[in-house]
């Protein structure tokens, strides 16, 4: 049986180097304090509501005070997406 020809592979040539691009990172030093503040306000709102048996934060809201507290906490999570 005849031998098959061996194909010579071309030498590897790396792709041309791309010029480096500057990444503009803006200063987001406000994110961490605002995030922590929203977390703490939401937690304090809920704790005060439970400790005072629903009479302190806003009495007319009733159990909706829990939703307000969790709204502050959710706002903290929303702000945390801006942290780099």
SSE order and pairing:
Blueprint: H1 31-51, H2 64-80
Please tag this protein with its features.
84 residues, mainly alpha, 2 helices
What does this structure look like?
The protein has 84 residues and is mainly α. The protein is built from two helices and no strands. Helix 1 runs antiparallel to helix 2. The chain is elongated and about 95 Å long. It starts with 30 loop residues before the first helix and ends with a helix. The model has no long low-confidence stretch (mean pLDDT 84).
Count of beta strands = 0
Number of helices: 2
Strand percent estimate: under 5%
Sheet with the most strands, sense and barrel status: none
Distance between the termini: 66 Å
Summarize the structure.
By secondary structure, the chain is mostly helical. It has helices at 31-51, 64-80.
């Amino acid at each position: 049986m005849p031998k098959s020809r061996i194909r010579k592979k071309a030498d590897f040539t790396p792709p041309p180097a791309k010029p480096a691009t500057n990444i503009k990172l803006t200063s987001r030093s406000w994110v961490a304090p605002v995030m922590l503040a929203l977390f703490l306000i939401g937690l304090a709102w809920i704790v005060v509501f439970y400790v005072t048996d629903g009479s302190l934060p806003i009495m007319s809201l009733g159990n909706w005070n829990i939703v307000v507290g969790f709204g502050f906490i959710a706002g903290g999570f929303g702000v945390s997406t801006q942290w780099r």
